[in-house]
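Problem 12. The chain below contains 397 residues. Write out its predicted structure in token notation.
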Amino acid sequence: MLVDQPQATAFFETGPIRHTAVAGGEFSSEHLSFVGYSGLTSELTTGTAAFTSTGAPIVSVAAPANIILTAAKPALNTNPQRYRLGTSSGYVMDTANYDDFIIVNAGIRFDNYKVTSVNNTASQSVKSGVTSYNAGLVVKPVEELSLYAAYATAANPMGAEMDGNSSTYGGLSPTNPSGQIFGPQKSRAYEAGVKYALFDDRLLATAAYFHTDVSNARETAPSGVPGFTSGQIYNRAAYRVSGVDLSVAGNITEDWTLQAGLVIMDPEVTKSIVPTLVGLQMSNIAPDSFNILSKYNAYDWLAVGGQATFASQVQGGSLLAANGGQAYPAAPYPTLIPAYWRFDAFAEGIVTANLLVKLNVQNIFDQTYYNGLYQSAVPFVGIAPGRTVSVSAEVKF
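Solution.
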């Protein structure tokens, strides 16, 4: 990877208004290749396995299938996929400050983006020109209080997920049909809120409302939808996410540190080629989440603390929506990951000026919960680690 990021900053005044202007660019070139293996029979959904199952085989850890004497020796495939990504960008922005009472900022950026995906037999490329904007306003009626509003646009070009080997996962396949090359996914974001400094500016409290609209989102057509080919990708979907974010961060006292946040949001599919998906909750998102982390310096040499984390129920499905992978026109029936709480604790002790010892206990109550739900018609979940205890030491030389 080669990257060059030139930037220039200028300070000037227009009457009582102080300006900070920034202009710059970004020029990069990145090459990436990846290749899979053949002969990994333990990863097949058919063939010899320790036990039979309806999905991937259940393979013995002690005797995985790929060490069976009659099995082929795993080997790298001979047709690697190679990515070439080039980006040329330029931007300008200005922040205007009137007496630290009203602060206005605005900017514009242009990105010229090209990605090429090739293998030994095929090649495909995507070129996108993306213009994005941002603007913000801050009003400070008193030193401790800030009222703000912000607006920004963004875009996600096709092929941007370079670790994905197909457009289904946000990548670009060398064999991707030309008719399946789409423009960038676009978004518009709005936010308004208030920030207040407490305890002599030691603790910052924030309350904000946010709203994001996404258009040109890509989705795969299921079978049975009139006018669309099953299995093909289309960029006609749209969704929105709106909600509130409440947080505090900083010190309550000189020895007591607190960080806490609560997010309540409503993620909804607003447009889809599948009529039954419109109005559904987006899949694989916890609408409500909460986290609090507190640390207290009990002595000069000892600090103790704890953390509590909550995530609400997650609904799963295929495409963007929580439909449970139901085929059209069946009624949506989402798969679910239940809500959970997790509690952690930690302690830090200064043994000497050069030695710090840390004790961490994660998931104190050994709560069984799931931290991932795969988006498919045959879902599977990732189970989170149980109680984990670790001790570490940091030594300075």
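Discussion. Confidence is low (pLDDT under 50) at residues 42-53. Students who got a different answer should revisit the alignment rule from Section 12.3.
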